[in-house]
Amino acid sequence: MSARLSRGGRLIDRRAPVTFRFDGKPMTGFAGDTLAASLLANDQMLVGRSFKYHRPRGIVASGAEEPNALVGLGQGPRFEPNQRVTTTETFEGLTAISQNHWPSLEYDIGAVNGYLARFLPAGFYYKMFLWPRPFWKHVYEPFIRQSAGLGKVPQDADADRYEQAYAFADLVVAGGGIAGLTAALTAARAGKRVILLEQTAHWGGRAPVDGDVIDGMAADLWVKNAVQALEGMANVTMRLRTMVSGLYDHGYALAYERVADHTPGDGRPRHRLWRIRAGKVITATGAIERPLSFAGNDIPGVMLAAAVRDFVVNWAVSPGDRTVVVTNNDDAYRTALVLADAGLVVAAVIDARPSATGDLPAQVRARGIRVLEGRGIAKVKGAKRVTGVAICAQEGEGAVLEEIACDVVAMSGGWSPVVHLWSHCGGKLVWDAEASMFRPDAARPPTGDAGQPIAATAGAASGALQTAAVLADAHAAAGGEGLAPQATGPAEAAMLPVWIMPQGAGNALKSKMWLDYQNDVKVSDVQLAAREGYESVEHTKRYTTLGMATDQGKLSNINGLAVLSNALHQEIPATGTTTFRPPYTPISLGSIGGEARGEIFQPLRQTPMHGWHEAQGAYWEPVGQWRRPYCYKRGGETAHEAVNREVINTRSNIGLLDASTLGKILVKGADAGRFLDMLYTGVMSTLPVGKCRYGLMCNDNGFLIDDGVVVRLSEDSWLCHTTTGGADRIHAHMEDWLQCEWWDWKVHTANLTEQYAQVAIVGPKARMLLEKLGGMDVSREALPFMTYAEGTLGGFRARVFRISFSGELSYEVAVPASEGLAFWEACVAEGAEFGAMPYGTEALHVLRAEKGFIMIGDETDGTVIPQDLGLGWAISKKKPDYLGKRAQERSHMADPNRWKLVGLETLDGSVLPDGALAVAEGVNANGQRRTQGRVTSTYHSPVLKKGIAMGLVLNGPGRMGEVLDFPVDDGKVVQARIVDQVFYDKDGEKQNV
Amino acid sequence: MSEQISALVGRSYSGFSTVAEAGLVGMVTLRGDLGSAELVAAVLAATGCAMPGQRRRVVAGDWSVCWMSPDELLLVGPYASAPGLVDQLTAALEGQHALAVDVSDARASFSVTGPKAAEVLMKLCPVDFAALAEDEVRRTRLGQIAAALWKSGRDSGREEYSLVCFRSVASYAFGVLENAARPGSELFAG
Amino acid sequence: MLTLTCPHCGIRAEETELSPGGEAHLKRYGPGDSDEQFEAYMFARKNPKGVHFERWRHAYGCGKWFLAARCTATLEVFGTYPAQTSAPPEHIIAAIRARRPGWEAGQ
């Protein structure tokens, strides 16, 4: 039985009972409890089933290292699986469900795996599922999927909010135990800007539990004083429930604050991820006690010795009435003392060392507790709960000397410093043979941008386990001068490394010795891996899954690699450790996403007319981060019908397009013409003021990256239109060349894309609308095709460009963005009598495709040069240089067999699928059907009433009239004839009226 | 004259701090040699402001001048005056290698006001606000967009930051600021 | 996540405020140059474990390009400097040599 004690409990408030449910069963705990403490207080030792064998599992630890006790917490939109009960605070109304069993925690069908254990050895999955290959899809994968995964996936959208915040500090101290408090005080007194973070809800760490005396005070009082002193300092920021989850390059640390896990739904963000830039990080992260490997060490009731005393001292919870302590060190004797002080029975202390003579064993003996020296546990008895232990000689092979009845086994295999943060960013470790631990090598710290150390360790995280040494180390780590806080305590004798118990155990025992509880990896599995030739610890980890569970091997790593080292007959440092990677314990995806969800998942760029489009029921198309209307559906129209209507209306009346997203980059300066001649394949320096010219831009690798109309605004300034998606990219491209290559050229650029709202007024009646709006002269004579003028239209300050991307009479009118909506509305209202209607991007595409105009991103894909697209007319032959010119002279670019742009017309009038490939005879080197072309743009033309397409085809322009085969879905083949890509108004008369 | 509206028409939100779109603000980008006597004189004549140092801001009357990069200033003032200011600067800098252009309509401006205003911005910008000088202009990242910000409390007499971003992302900027200012999400007690 | 100090505006910017631009100090080859020269300019990039010169743009800040000398193995930054130069300046070379004795430019 585990139960609540009638007295004590330094962290609980007995006046504040809280009720919660576990697997539907109502239970009561106290404010200040962890869920682990509450469950134990309700005699709920069995809390889950293991992943592979579905073994019954109980609470082992009292903190972040807990491997077994994972539950599903919360309900509905606040449900989350795999939460450790040891780090979950109990609150009123909490609900938890146990995991990994069916039909129930007590009776689990999956436990049959345990009987099959000898058929499920290390590497089982790799061996079993290799052959035969066809089995994978229909047999193995469904089987694995059905049994894979720990916990249930939440079904509802997360109800909580998450956020991030940036912080800056000279020093971040990770860990609020006595080492962290000492380091923070030391640094803060020296004037440093300090952030002190503690992952639990309490300051002080283990010291108050262990009964340390610091500076003549009980540890509790010393901690209280230290916290008060820090709280009074303006240069110190302190946070509880905040775990430093990772340390990264140049002193970047992530800290995970569980703001409202214990107060769900109170309106605060649930988690907050702090993104901290620290001059230095002191990791005062303590140490984790190691389990011992003896047969049956996973039976509920076998716990870490320090966890047992945590439960007694912190939460007044007795894990059981009768405890056997098993250890290889003096520290575990503290557990015996704590239990005895609480009036509980310690049946015996089993010490693997030949003799136990230190102060602590002496105190234990003085209480009349039996101490067995040189002994080990041969086997734990019990199934869902420990009922006793069989004792053997540690040096032997497991012959049972006696049996002792007990319901708790408190084990201690020594301590491992928490070196994770130190190691995340490259800090190295050294093997300390005396203490049998990997500890940080202070001579090889992680380094920052100036090569300086960015981390130091303090206290137990350095490997200092005695209180006085912890304080001295922490004081020194923070650069303290003078005396460190002083501590007195019992002297402790050396520990004895014990990697398996008894040392001569045979396979029958070793196959019941668990290393990794969560992933069910046993001593025998690691030894099998070694026999099968696994020498690297990283490979062994992946083969056996040792340390790959959600606890990332916090309890199992050192024991596992010691077992591996023994099996490989080498020293532990020769085996080394696996890589420590952030986060230290799992952090929520919500905190990583931060505020980026819903409406603010990403920036959506909006034109000044966005609201109008929305009100008109625009069907949106994402174009980069812009949202542009794809079409405006009317009545019961489908999108396709709407597009057809918009195309036909634009060709016969007036179409209005919100073209505000088009890039508009102002280029000005004495060398602006020269610069643009380098940037574009054509000549822009000779463009007369007031004239427009279509231009192509390539990168220096020759490939076409953007196109648009360039306008000469004045003697020394040009306006470059770019594609919608290209504005920022092309502006950056310009600045790159100006700043990094031609920095002595006198050129300024300004990205004016968003300064103007731009409306394309397109169609045979376009001029009538402009004339009705009134103002500047927009006649054919005053404003011919490919010219530009400034003036007013209907009272709006307007820049008018006579350019056309549709083949129709077209004016693009730019007005200041703040007047964009008003101008648009004026066009709609005044245009009504001429049949003006807005059109969207799909109609724009159809209109341009009917005219054979290319679209960046359709006809180009980063491997296409202008010459491929029949755009030789826009490439200057006279210019000595432009970006891409040299590249386009390369043999592959000049190859006459490149695929080139043509029009494609299906014989049956259907619409070719986008991207469809034209096949050729034979197969290539990979045995695939040869191809000779592909579709780059394809639409139904409502004007021509048939499918039209453009594509890149081998020698295409020389093969007019030929018919190509395009295999499409279901083995069908669509035939299309190669034609000129201009399908509509080949002579361009309509745009020039 | 037509109706002129800012990106969000002055939308505001009061959480633990107040976030407000500032309406139409006049802004002129001036690029050139910031060390040249002609440019310094032209800026002084047009705005009354001396040339700000690196990342600084100078205020005089209606206009302020922000240092944006080694060859770029942002002049901030009344919306209606911006076109005239561009003309004045262009005339004054005739023959110089300089560019003055009205960008008032390409931008959206916001204020974040209240004793905890910095806490709103701390959630979105990788900026050490405790180290931000009173007259400093910081160009940075606000969530996923570019922004420029400075303390404007001296102008308004309140704890306040001003922030400028591109107009097309005004809605996103307001969204993240509003979200960051929600009651209950204060970063620090008190 | 790296921090680099922008030499143009003086901000010690974190990586999220910057955009990378690959190897620095490339000499552009164009029309009239040989295939080998052009290939080396366009495609052959150094990938050293150690001292490297890189282009960075203060994209979310002042928008200016700058160059950084840093160690790709330790991520140590020896210095940053404006992009308007065709070779690393003396003080940068000196800073590298102070930390990496024996280092030669062109390595």
Question: Could you walk me through the main structural features you see in this protein, from its secondary elements to its overall organization?
Answer:
The complex is a heterotrimer of chains A (993), B (190) and C (107). Chain A has 27 helices and 52 strands. With 993 residues, chain A is an alpha+beta fold. In chain A, a hairpin with a 2-residue loop joins β11 and β12. Chain A is elongated, with a radius of gyration of 38 Å. The model of chain A has no long low-confidence stretch (mean pLDDT 95). The relative contact order of chain B is 0.21. In chain B, the strands form 2 sheets. Chain B has a 6-stranded antiparallel beta sheet with strand order 1-2-8-11-10-9. A 5-stranded antiparallel beta sheet of chain B has the order 4-5-6-3-7, with helices on one face. By secondary structure, chain C is an alpha+beta fold. Chain C is built from 2 helices and 6 strands, in the order βββαβββα. In chain C, a hairpin with a 7-residue loop joins β4 and β5. Chains in contact: A-B, A-C, B-C.
Helix content of chain B: 10-25%
How many β-strand stretches of chain C?
A: 6
Runs of chain B in which pLDDT lies below 50 for 5 or more consecutive residues are none
Shape of chain B: globular
CATH C-level name of the largest domain in chain B = Alpha Beta
Which structural category do the helix and sheet elements of chain C fall into? alpha+beta
Strand content of chain B: 25-35%
Oligomeric state of this protein: heterotrimer
Q: Give the SSE string of chain B.
A: EEEHEEEHEEHEEHEH
Q: Treating each run of at least 4 consecutive H or I residues as one helix, how many helices of chain B?
A: 5
Biggest β-sheet: strands ordered side by side in the sheet of chain C: 3-4-5-6
* Biggest interface, CB < 8 A: A-B, 52 and 52 residues
Output the CATH homologous superfamily of the largest domain in chain B.
Answer: Probable tRNA modification gtpase trme, domain 1
Number of strands of chain B: 11
- Report the sheet with the most strands of chain B, covering strand number, pairing sense and barrel closure: 6 strands, antiparallel
CATH topology value of the largest domain in chain B = Gyrase A, domain 2
Average residue-wise pLDDT of chain B? 96
Shape of chain C: globular
- Evaluate the radius of gyration of chain C: 14 Å
